[in-house]
Write a structure and sequence with these properties.
By secondary structure, the chain is of the alpha+beta class. It has helices spanning 10-14, 17-35, 92-104, 117-123, 134-140, 157-165, 185-207, 217-232, 247-257; strands at 45-49, 56-58, 74-76, 110-114, 143-145, 170-173, 177-182.
Length: 263
């Protein structure tokens, strides 16, 4: 099928510059998830809030992540209504999860959810993410858990999902997958990179069968506190993970191997 089917140039004429920039970043994020092999066919989702509004962008249901373009993303309100005509539907379960978070977390600009094998493998362990790697320290400092209730189609689950995420940036969904919620698309991607890497390390370490060295709680607390203090002295940046640092390099990689995301 020709890629032009997923390009809708009229959309750029219908939106403001900041929405178009958000669309480009979100489409890039979808392509990166595909590039890193974290996709699950068409069954996971990333959303980004249109800055200054309560509207958000999400993937057209049925497209592979390496097919998604800035113009093919679907804009919806918090009730799930499409706000720009689109030939695509959205994943109902995806809308429930993302809509629930955007409804109450006005500080969140992007929500990223994946079903990676290592993420699911760790999520089904009773102790969840363990303090085994440097990456895991920062995830655990802002990590919630939301128990599996079946496919996310029950409206009653929304309040429990909102409660379990709270003000955290990471959510482990036991038997299901991983979720990150960040200020921006670049931040949220980097958060997922570290979350996923922590799970990969844990699964690989456990597979050796050797006794594992856990990072002591006092070291976890010290490391988080030191990093927060350091970040506060750097241009007022309080993020422990600043996606703006690797993002330009990630876009350069995409421009070499999958440039169509900007259309």
């Amino acid at each position: 099928m020709h890629a032009d089917r997923f390009i809708h140039p009229e959309v750029q004429q219908q939106v403001c510059a900041i929405e178009w920039q958000t669309r480009v970043e979100l489409a890039a994020c979808y392509r990166l998830i595909s590039l890193f092999r974290w996709e699950d066919l068409v069954y996971t989702h990333i959303s980004a809030k249109v800055p200054g509004t309560e509207e958000f962008l999400i993937n057209p249901y049925g497209l592979m992540f390496d097919e998604i373009t800035a113009s093919s993303l679907v804009k919806v309100d918090l009730a799930g209504n499409k706000l720009i005509d689109s030939p695509y539907n959205i994943n109902p379960a995806g809308f429930m999860i993302h809509g629930a978070i955007h409804e109450v977390r006005h500080d969140v600009g992007c929500v990223l959810h994946v079903h990676t094998a290592d993420g699911i493998a760790v999520s089904m362990q009773q102790e969840g993410l363990l303090p085994l790697s440097q990456q895991s320290i920062f995830i655990r400092a802002s990590l919630g858990y939301h128990p599996y209730e079946g496919v996310a189609l029950d409206p009653d689950e929304k309040a429990r999902l909102q409660r379990d995420l709270g003000d955290k940036g990471y959510l482990m969904l036991p038997n299901h997958g991983l979720l990150t919620a960040g200020d921006t698309v670049p931040d949220t991607f980097l958060m997922m990179y570290m979350f996923q890497r922590s799970c990969e390390v844990q699964v690989k370490a456990q597979s050796t069968g050797a006794p594992l060295i856990h990072i002591p709680a006092a070291v976890e607390d010290k490391t988080v506190a030191m990093t927060q203090a350091m970040n506060q002295t750097m241009r007022g940046n309080r993020k422990h993970l600043d996606g703006a640092v690797p993002w330009p390099a990630l876009l350069r990689r995409l421009d070499r191997v999958s440039p169509g995301y900007r259309e």
